[in-house]
Every structure is written in C-alpha cells, then in structure tokens.
Amino acid sequence: MSSFIAELATVNSLQAEHDMISNIQQERKVTGRVFDADNKPIPGVTVIVEGTTQGTITDTEGYYRLTIPESAEALLFSFVGMKTLREVIAGRTVIDVVMEAQVVGLEEVVVVGYGEQRKVNLTGAVSTVQSQELVKVPSSNVSEVLIGKATGLLTKQSQGVPGDDFTTLSIRGYDSPLVLVDGIEMSWTRLDPNEIESISILKDAAAAVYGARAGNGVVLITTKRGAIDKPTITYSSNYTYQQPTVVPEIVSSWKYAALLREGELNVGLPYTYSEEDIQKFKDGDDPDYVNANWYDAMFLKWAPMQTHNLNVRGGSDAVKYFISIGYLDQASIYKSGDLKFNRYNARANIDANITDKLTVSMDLSFRNETRDSPKASLNTIWTDLKRTQSVWPATLPDPTKGGAYSGSKVSPVAQTISDLAGFQNDRQQYFAGKVGLEYEIPGIKGLVASADLNYAANNKYLKVQDKPFEVFSYNYETGEYTSYGFIGSNELDENFSKYYQLYPLVSLNYDRTFGRHQVSGLLLAEWIDTEYFYLSAGRIDLMSLEIPYMFAGSPNNITNNGGAVETGRASYIGRINYNFQGKYLLEGTFRYDASHKFPKDSRWGFFPSISAGWRISEESFIKDNLSWIDNLKIRASYSMAGDDNVEAFKYLTGYEIRSGSTDVYVFGNQVYRMITSTGLPNPNITWLDMTSYNVGIDARFLRGLIGFEFDLFYRVVDNIFGKPLETYPSTFGAELPSLNLNSTDDRGFELTVNHRNQIGNDFRYSISGNVSYAREKYRRWSETPYDDPDEIRIYKKEGKYTNRWIGYLSDGIFMSQEEIDNHEVDQDQAGNTTLRPGDIKYIDLNGDGVIDWRDQDEIGYGTFPDLYYGLDLQVQYKGISVTAIFQGASMFNNMISDHYAGPLTNWGNPYEFHYKYRWQPDPENPDVNINPEARLPAILGDGQGRSPNNSKTSDFWLQDATYLRLRNLNVSYSLPEKWMQPIGIKNLSVFVAGSNLFTLSKLGIYKKSLDPEATQYQKHYPPVRTVSFGVTVSL
Amino acid sequence: MIMKKLKYSLLAFVLFTMGCNILEKEPLDIISDAVVWKDEALVDAYLADLYDRTDFIERRGSGGQSIDCVSLGLIGSLGGEIRSYGGHHIPYKAATEVITGEGFYNILTIWKYSAIRDINYFIEKLETESTLEQAVIDQYIAEARFLRAYLYFEHVKRYGGIPILTKAQDMDAPLEELYVPRDSEKDVYDFIISETDALADILPSEPEQKGRPSKWAALALQSRSALYAASIARYGTVQLDGLLGFPASDENYYAQISYDASTAIINNGIHELYEQYADPVENFQNLFLDESDANKEVIMAEVYDYSLNRAHAFTQRAMPHEFSNTWGAWHFLYDWVERFEFADGSPGTSISRTDLESREWTPEELFHNRDPRFRATVFYPESPWQGGKVYFHSSTIRDGVTYSSGVAEDGWPYAAHTRNQAKSGFMVRKRCNESKIMPTNVVDDDTDYIIFRLGEIYLNLAEAAFYLDLPGEALDALNRIRQRADMPDKETINEEIIQNERLVELTEENHSYWDIRRWRIAQEWLDGKRMAGLKYKYNYDTKKYQITVVNAEGVARTFQERNYYLPLGVDRVSENPNFVENPGY
Known about the structure:
The complex is a heterodimer.
Chain A: H1 2-21, E1 29-35, E2 46-49, E3 55-57, E4 63-67, E5 74-78, E6 85-88, E7 97-98, E8 109-112, E9 115-118, E10 126-130, H2 131-134, H3 142-145, E11 153-157, E12 167-171, E13 178-181, E14 184-185, E15 196-202, E16 218-223, E17 229-244, H4 253-266, H5 275-283, H6 294-298, E18 303-315, E19 319-331, E20 340-353, E21 358-374, H7 378-386, E22 403-404, H8 412-415, H9 418-421, E23 422-440, E24 447-466, E25 469-475, E26 480-487, E27 491-514, E28 517-540, E29 559-580, E30 584-595, E31 604-615, H10 620-623, E32 629-643, E33 655-657, E34 664-667, E35 670-673, E36 675-677, E37 688-701, E38 706-722, E39 739-759, E40 763-780, H11 789-794, E41 804-807, E42 810-813, H12 817-821, E43 840-842, E44 857-861, E45 867-877, E46 880-890, E47 893-895, H13 898-901, H14 912-917, E48 921-922, E49 925-929, H15 948-951, E50 958-960, E51 963-974, H16 977-980, E52 987-995, E53 999-1001, E54 1024-1034
Parallel strand pairs in A: 1-7, 13-16, 22-25
Antiparallel strand pairs in A: 1-4, 2-3, 2-5, 5-6, 8-9, 10-15, 11-12, 13-14, 15-16, 17-18, 17-54, 18-19, 19-20, 20-21, 21-23, 23-24, 24-27, 25-26, 27-28, 28-29, 29-30, 30-31, 31-32, 32-37, 33-36, 34-35, 37-38, 38-39, 39-40, 40-45, 41-44, 42-43, 45-46, 46-51, 47-50, 48-49, 51-52, 51-53, 52-54
Helix pairs in contact in A: 4-5
Chain B: H1 2-23, E1 30-31, H2 33-36, H3 40-54, H4 74-78, E2 82-84, H5 90-96, H6 113-128, H7 134-159, H8 175-178, H9 185-202, H10 215-235, H11 250-266, H12 280-287, E3 298-302, H13 314-318, H14 321-324, E4 330-332, H15 334-337, H16 353-358, E5 360-361, H17 363-368, H18 372-377, E6 378-379, E7 383-385, E8 388-390, E9 395-398, E10 401-403, H19 418-422, E11 427-428, E12 449-453, H20 454-467, H21 471-484, H22 495-505, H23 512-518, H24 522-526, E13 532-539, E14 544-551, H25 570-575
Parallel strand pairs in B: 9-13
Antiparallel strand pairs in B: 2-4, 3-12, 5-14, 6-11, 7-8, 9-10, 13-14
Helix pairs in contact in B: 3-6, 3-7, 6-7, 7-9, 7-10, 9-10, 10-11, 10-20, 11-20, 20-21, 20-22
C-alpha cells in the first residue's frame, strides 16, 4: 500500500515539473513523454543526449526529465522492441515523442567469421545465442549452457563431472566443430558465461571462411566489449545445488542374497546364502546381516556450486571498456568432498580511439583452474561401485582405518577419499592476450587496415599420488577387523606441460555504399604457430605417504619422460559482399590454407564458397500489397571446406620409440628400449574435403508475431581417411597408410517456428519450437571386397547409414527347458545344449535352421540422435519473467550392456529391474518360470553376468532412448526501478532456475536406473539436475 | 610511388616468409627408416620390439582391467587345469563358449602377420642396407628367424595351414600376390623344421645374454613342433585336400626328427635337469624361480626384471587374495588334482570321490602324500605360504557349533577368506614367487618366463620314442622325470601314462590345451563337462576336514570336433578370396 502511494507521489511531482518547465525557458532542461503507436505511454525507454553518456529512463507513466548541455542537438530514444528514434531538440524544452515498434530481430547484428553482419543480410545459415540466455541457468561448462539453445546444434550430455566437460556438441550431426573465442582456437568450455556477449553457430557456407578447419561448422564465441555509456557495475552471484539425474535402483541386501542364491542354483553351484540367511537380511536385526547402500555411502543428495561475477562496462568516445572478474566453486556429490573444481577468471577488453583514424584494442584474459580429485579415476570408482554388494557394510566403524570390504576386492567409498587412497591435483592456468590496431586509411573512404597479435598459453601441472590402503571387514559380534589386503600402490607422479599459441593476422576491410549498391570486402592473412611440451616424472615406494614429494621416493624404478609437439598453419582469406537495395545479396569467400600436418606438395588448399539471398519482402509487389509480410528471404549457399583434425606427419615413414614406462625389453641384465614402425606412409595425405549445399527461408509475418526459419542441407565429405582394405588382406602385415579414400554424406533439415506477442503494456511472451534432423551415410567406403550377399547386407558399409546397429533379432526368452528342447533352430551351433531357460530366443532370419552371423540384420539407430527437437517458452510480466526450455532427441538407442544386462557380473549388486523382470525358476520345477512378469534372462550365479547366448548384439538389448526433458527453467524478478533508483541501484533482479528438472523417456524398465543421454550406464559421473538461486545487481 | 611499391613488396615478402617458416615443422618423435639400419642401438631396439611382440608369456597381465590383464591363465583354463575366479574372466569364458567363425577372444586367435612382416623386413634390411659388422648382422638375422619360426608354430598349432611369408610384401604387388593362399599344415611344420635345422647351425651354443635363443632353443622348438606334427599324423585326419593334417605315414618321420632333436639337447653337456634341493617339493618350486647359473634346465627364458621396469603379473593373479590383495584368480579343478598320483605311484583317483565325502580327512592324508610336484604346484588347505597358511574351509565345527567367522584362541580361523572358499578349494602355486609382497606395484613379478626347459624335452623324447616303437627308451626318459620328482618308476608305458606325466609335469606352463588337442582327446575330456571342486568344513575337535564334492564350474565347457582347428574367421576369409575356412565353421 505504501509503495503504491509513493509511486503516485513520484508521478504527480514529475508531472508538475513537466508543466512547470514548459514555462521556464532559462533552464537547459527538457522533459517529455514517450508514447507508442497506440498512444500509450512507454515506461523504461532510455533517453540519451546524442554524443554524450548523459541519459535517463522514462518512468512508469512514460515521463522523463533530462539536463542537457548547451550544445546538445538531438535526443536518442531507445527501447527493446522499438526502433531507435533520433529527435532533434531544436530549442524545445518539452519533447513528446511517439516510438515505432520494430519488428523484432530484423535489426539484429550477428557475429560471422572475421566480422559482423546484419541478420537480414545473411546469406548463410547462422544461429546465435545471446548473452542473457547464457546466464539464466548456471553451469560450470559453457557447452552445457548451450544445450537446447540453438537450432542445429546437437548435444549429448553424458556426464556431470565438476570442471570437466562431457557434453558432445555437434553441428548438424557432424564431427566436432571448430570453436573460436574471439577468433582464437582455445579451451572454451570453462569460460565464465558472464564474459560472453554472443555465440554464433555457422553451419554452411558461413563457416567456409575458416577453410581447412571449417567443414564441421564453426562456433564463434564473442566476449563482451565496452559501449559508449556510463559505467555500469554489475555484480551477480548464484548458488546452485546439483544432483544426479538418475540414481540407479540397486536391490537391497536380502534381494541380493536371494538373487545370488537363485543364480547359483540356476548354474548348479553350491549356494552362498541359505534361506535363513536371506530371512536374516530381511529382518535386519542381526548387525552382521546389513543392508548397505554403497551409493548412499559415497554420494550426497545435493552438491553445492557457487559463482560470483563482478564486471564493469561502459565507455566514452575515447575509451570503451569491459572488465570482469569471476569466481566459481563447484563441489561434487562425493561425500568425501575430495572431488571439486574452482576457477578464477578475469578479462579486460579495452578499445581506445587514439586518433579519429586509429583505434587500438587490447584484450587480456586469465583463468586459473583447480581440480582436485581422488587418485582413482572416475571410471575406476564407478566401475568398482558396480561390483559392490549390499550385503557388506559400506563403511567401517572407524573410517580412518581403511576401506570397507565390498564382497569383491574393491572399496569404492574409500577410493573417493584422498587421505586414504591418494589424490590427483590438476592445476591449470590459461592466459590469452590480444593487441589490435585498426586504421582507417585516408583517401579511400571505407577502407580500414588492421593488424592483430594474439597469444594464448596454457600451463598445466598434474600431481598424482597413489596410496595403498588396507581393506577390512568388520565383525559386529566380536568387534574384530579382518584384513583383505591392500588396494593401490605407493607411487607419485608429476606432469608439467606448457602450451602456447602465437597468432598474428593482418587485414584490409572495405565497406561502402554507392547509391543502391553496398559493397564490402575483406582481405586477410594469418599465421598460427603452436608449441606444446611436457615433462613427467615418477617415483615409487615413498618413505612416508605423508611426504608426497619426489625426494621421498625410492631410488629404484625412477621414471621420467618428456615430449613436444609443434604445429603451424598459414592462411590467406578473402571475402566480398554485394547488396543491391537490400534485395539481392551475394557473398563470396575464399581461403587459401596450409597446415604443417601435410607434405609440402599437398599442404595448400583452396576453399571457396558462394552464397546468395533474395529478400522478396523488399520487392515492391510484396511491400505494397502484402504488408503483413515483414521479412521474407530465400537463400542458398555452396561451399567447400575441410577438416584437418588428423594426426600429423602421416606422409613420413619411420619409427617411434615406445614410450610407456614399462615398454622395455631385457636380455641378461641389460635393458633395451623398443622402437616400432609408424606404419606405411601416405606421401599424398591431405585434409578431408567437405562440400556443403544449403537452401533456406527466413520469414517473419504480422509485425513479428510469427517467425519462421527453414534450412535444408546436404553435405558430402570426401577424402576421409581409410585403410586400403580391399587390396591388402591382413596377411600383408603392415600398418596400412591412412589414405584419403572414403566418403560420407549428410542430409537433413532444420526448422524453427516462433511466435512473439505483447498483450497490454506489461505482458509479453514468446514460443519458439525447433526441429533438426540429420543423417549420415557411407557414400564410398574402402572395405573388404565382400561378395557374399549376406556379407554385403550385414557388413558392407558403403551406401548405408552410419548411425545404426547390426545384430540379431530376438523373439523374447525361452520360458522353459521344454521350449528349448522343442526349439527347431540350432541357436548355439551346439544343438542348443548350452542354452538354459530364460535365454534369449533369436530369429532364424534365413530359415536355415542355424543361428549364425548370416542371421544378423540392421536392428536400429545408433547411439547419437538423428532427430532433435526443442521448445522455448518465455513469458514476461512487469518485472517477472519465466523461461522454460524443453529439449529432446530421438532416433537413437542405448545398448543395454555391462551390469545392466548382466546382473551379478563379478557379483556386483543387481538392480531392481532385474529382480522384478527376471526369468525365475519355480522352486518345485526349476525348468519352468514362475514370474508372470519375466522378460529378462535368468540370473547366473557364477559372476559371468550374461551367458554367451545372451551376449550377442541383438535388439533385445537395444533400447530406444527417445526423451524429452525440461532442460532449463528460469524464473526471475526485477525489482521495480522506482524502489531501486532512490538507493542508487540501476537494476536488482533475483532468479531461481533449474536444469534437467524432469525427463520423459522411452527407456522402459530401465528408466529409473538410466539417464537417456548417459551412454556409459552410470559407470561415470552421472549428468546432473541443478537448482539455482541467484541475484544480479547493477549500479 | 616507388617507395610505396617498395613498401608493399616488402610487406608481401614478410608475409610470405612468415607463412613458410611456420609450416616447416618436423615431427619431434619419429626416427627415419634410413637411420635405423646404420645404428646398432636402433637395430637392437627394433629387434627388442619383435621379441616383445612375440608374446612368449601369453601377455604380461599388465594393463589394469584390460584384456591382457585377465587373459593370463588362458591356456590352463582351456586345457581343464583351472577355472578362473570370475565368471567374466576371459579364461573362464573362453573355456565355455562355443567357438564360431564370427570371432573369438583374440588372445586365443592371435594373427601376428604384422610381427612376421616386420621380421621379414628386418632380415631384408639387415641383409641389404646395414652397415653393421657382418657377425652382428648374422646373429640378429638368426634371432629374427627364430622368432619367425616360433610365431609360425604359434599359428600352425591354432589354425593348421596358414600362408608362409618370408618376404615383406610390396605395396605395389599385384593383387594375386597379395591374396596369398593358405599353405598346408605340413608345409608350415616343414618350414619350422627346416628353419630350426638351419638355425641350429648358426645360433651359438651359449648366447651372450640370457633371453636370446641358443642352438638348443632352436632344437627345442624343433623337438616340440615335430612332436606336434607326429601326433597329428597319428591321431588326426587329413582334411581340406591336405591343407590340414598329415598322412598317417608321416608319423614316424616327424617323430624321428623330434627324437633326434631331443636327444641332441639332452646329450649336449650344457643342460641338465634341475636338482639343487634334496627335497623334491622345494626343488620343483625353485626350478621355476631359480634364475642363477645353477639352473641348467632352462633352455630359453624370457627375462623379467622389475628393477628395470619389465615385469608381469603371474604372482599377482595366482597368489591367494588374503596375503596382499592379490587376485587368487586361478583355481585348480579337482579333476586336474586327481591327475597327481600318490607318492607310492597309485593313481590320484585311488581315493574315490565317494570316499572323500564319507569320512573326515587330514591334509596329510589327501595332499601331503601325493606326488611331491603336487605340493609344489597347488595351494591346498593349509599350504604354507609367506610365513602363514592358505585356508579354504568355509566354516569350522567346534563342540557341535558351526562358526563361519572369527578366530579360535589358538589362532585357528573359523573360516577361510571368502574368495578362497568360493571355487574349487585349490589355487595355483607353481611359478608363484613367494618373495613378492604386494602392493608396491601390482605388476611386479619378475620371475623369468621359461619358454623351453629340459624337463619338457625328456617328455618329448618319451613320446617320440613311443611313437617310434621304442618303449624302452620312452620309459627311460619318462622315469628320468619321475626320479627327479621322487616318484617311483613306471614299469610299463602307454599313451595314457605318457600323457598324464606330461600334463602333471608341465601343469601351468601353457601346454595342456595344445597337448590334449593334438592328441585329439580334448573333445572327450572337455565337451559338456563341468569340473569338480571341493568344499571343506573343518572339524576343530578332530582337526580334520569334512569334504563335499561340488561343481566348480557354473557353465559346462564346450569343445567341438571342429575346435581341433580354430576358425580363421569370417573377416579373414572374406578379405582374401583365396582363403578357405576350416571345416565345421
């Protein structure tokens, strides 16, 4: 109530002043009111005196008041969604204006290779992500932030390790794209998202300007720079909780004991647990019959992460600046707290006008990353976790004593504790610096010359101590510990590496409009020189485990190693753009590129591209007749690019010294090193050639109400490395050279449809849906010259899709021994003597009565999705805004394997779905099933997991992993300015956000124990769901 | 204007030269081919690599959870000696799975034409390009030929006839040359015999360094391979128009070659059976561990030295888990234990399985009075080890109460380590190094791996003599081995006696599977069989064990008639139109 009155009071006083100033001519002040086309006042419009940083913002009723210098000529009014308006003052003191709505997006400028372009003038396929989208849901990885944000950018988030990146990014299903940060290839996934202004995804000819590296598309990350404005100091902070998306449902100890007993009886082995034992586990009152949950013992329910960023942005005519410092601290779900990541980062991007012709820019950035983890790798810990048994307590009464025996000779809880099992400390520093000069060449209008020198470096220091720890079981009755020996060894390793990149470039830029013709051009030359070297050393048998330094190691078995790699690249680039009246757009680029990886004669490559656009909406027959069409453009492109992401020097023949520390041979008492051939050389080796074709339509109707983008693409990749297998059978013996032999092609489409609207003054919303589809085929493939029709059908790749599984077709399981005995097909090539009830039944595809390789066929899609879809919803009401991103994928599969397919593999704990759906013998008649829900094979008690029959690759285990998840949700609230302004705050907003909040998937019975994107079966750090709270303050 | 032009051309020049320098990178870690043949150290390193890739020991067991690591013990498992602890271990799986043409564990189906090519290339380059001393060249070529012969033997015993390549094929060779057809099994054995014949004349009688082949190693390879050929001629059949098998008439021819080679070795005055300890158990244990010059039994061994960073994981895999978190992964099957006779020469089955279960037994009655080689080969209940004892019992009965955990006041553990109880009640002691205390490093066993030893040669001789119808000589050779073991002489000789003696003496030395295949008894012995193990309950009051005979294997073994030859596999047959697959696949 009181705030409402305060609001009224402010309005009244401003209005009074407005009226008063009209009468007083002497003050150099202006006031006014801003309206939209419907004559409604617009609050929040920025009003700036042209050529200065002086300005203000309209109040809730659209009023503003401003002191202006004598010399002021005009005011600039700007507001999101409106065309910026320049109003000449002409002596007035009251200036009321009407702003015109602007069709959203048409004025948008996007970053493209070596420059920027207005989006409407683009002739290539480019998606962009803006800075505000990157900070809505906090994450320590930029690649995670990108999930679901851009059409055609396909992702798979397989793990959620703190400070480590396991999100696969792909443009249109291609291999890894080239990612550049302000033009430089560098480690980018752990940039502070607050430093990023925009991310452009160049998908077709738009990428071709990057030549030999561009064939898989290019992602351009552009950091923020200063702007002519008063300094804005922004502080933002958030606190995030992370949790695995899926915690596998493992069976409790009595079910474990029961399944083990059943499994042992199934294979005729003596059983470990009697019925009485199982009952004791069930009762749970005997301390020696525990029900342990090793997951719970290792992992927290939630792990925290916090980030802080403080930046200042602003500038004057002379100097513009963006300066940012940030901090991130991320804990893991390890209860020990010994897996964690933190990052300090700083950036200063400064542009200075030295003279009116000469601009200098200087970018400096620094990042310090600290990763601590236990010695045992993620893989080890997760693999070992699979082997634990719930019948053994996960912790000891005295946890400092050592590891708890898990029933197997692993002790993963202890392995997460660095004090016990050793540590792995990774320290990395990144430094990047750029100094650039830009000079407007006098005499030729529109011609600018520039020179940049980039430098990027990365130091890495890794120290690993392996500590042996003793493993015990504990007897609650007697209070005795029983030792099960040691895990780990007494070893210390250190590795230091250094990488640097030196990257100068010079360019000439031309941009000029001659009447209805706009012409721009670029000529550029660049050179990239990198060097990497490392030095490593190791000691064993440290005198004391508490002294993790080299000098404490034994003088025996000392190891050390080192190595270096150099690379080089030179390129000459040209581009020309022509634009006639904004109707006909033409762009041509070329790049002449060389890489050190290839021999002198085939080192240089020429990569041209051409693209054109026709803005039909600019033609008068549309403009005059169909005014509801805001924009309609068709575009087409053709480009050639490459990929040189291959091993260098394959054109040389030679030998490598086998460098592993145990790669030695001994005769007598003398040690010998070993050299091994690098294989036959290919003197003509060169990069992969990619030819892309793209046609697209961009459209926007009804003043931005509906937007539409559609792209159709086709890409041919030639010169893929292949071994000449047709010609050389394996008896040839040599490591065959990699020749540029093979070819694949990709086809697909991308569609984005969006709808934006504003209802009243305060309510705005947008809905944007997107679908991308891409599929790759082997176009030409060097392989064994198959002649048998079945071999051709099953093994031959040429002409077939790449993303598919080959295997057997199944027909459920054998429910009884009788069914096996009556089965007419010889399924095991041994008269079905090795089959048991519960085994998978395979279909005899060719009807020859035997299951052999000829009965295989294509059984489904591969593991990377071919189809992606997403829905982006944004709603804004006054200061409240809600963003929700749904994202999903389809046309891919998870191959159920490992412990998921083989319960009791290595006697590890089975999952609930095994208990529920197994083939279960009738105790009275063990050849017959009594489980009405039986659909999985019988449990085997000998640790083998799956029988050979059930281990065949088949559709039985191929699980459609189609999913849809609420990838991001953000609810934020900006406190009203009128509350903030009095206390000197420009903006204060708070948000609550989440990622991966819920998931729908087709994983069926595996749903509760499997994340659809985690192909590693939770054998690695699972993807996480997060919930964040954050605040942003701008001064 | 001129100045301007000059400036631009200067700029162009700078740009151009910058570009060129940046691209002139050298690989920093590659040694060119031409350098190798002129530098003895590099030739040594090339040859060392060839030795390493020959994999005398069936891989070193290194490499964490990798295939190498769990593949040690494969041959013993396939041959029915042991089961590997984990149902998922490759030795266990390989023994039970049906071998099909689609592929099998590549640790069994090795295909080392890459090593063979590199050997051929090595020989060719040394012959034509090397500037080293001729004597050195000759020695190295001979060693390389030895490795090649050894590798061909490894292949022929798996597949029968395979292509014999003695030159590195040229990349530009015509297709018909590249698509080499299979040579016959007989051709391959003949090649090995002719190569070893030649090498016996070239290789030194006593090589300068341990680990390199001697004249006697060449003859040992000949003794073994000719014996294989003779037995296949005797027991096998000719198939695929002679690609596989020998005419029966060849039996004597090959037996004679083997007999001659064995005789030459036995009489060479250099090698002697190892008899350094009065106690036959201690002697037999140390035969595999004694790396001093006193051990004259070893004809060729691969050298391991942990301090030089070359080690394997045998002990780590074999040693019972409770000693230092070793794997205790190999469990002798009771069927194999029964092959060990009692000390008086009575058969190992003379205590029947029914007897076993019908009363209580002391370890002395069951194990101590067996062939001394048993105690040196097998961990059994209360085997002494590293100052303690190895236990296998699952519980202890005392005053009518059953205890399955805890320790009695005299230190008696009421139950053995769970891992020991679980399988067959026995583990592998032979070749296990008692001095190894883990866990400084898991792969730290540096016991040399014996490739050929005189004990085998005696048994080769016995078998060849038997084939040649020289029963007296056969008996002498066989009894010589038994005498060393302190076992009573056999008085008669037959196939079964020869076979059993060989399997017992050479247990866990990677012979059993190959032997029972070439004798063509593998199918009868293995197919559909599940071997037995023993479960022990200890009676504290009587100090005796109550025994139950149980299944030790959860899955029946498979060995099909066609498995006397492994399949080349769909891949190899389809890549080479001149290849025919072995019968049955």
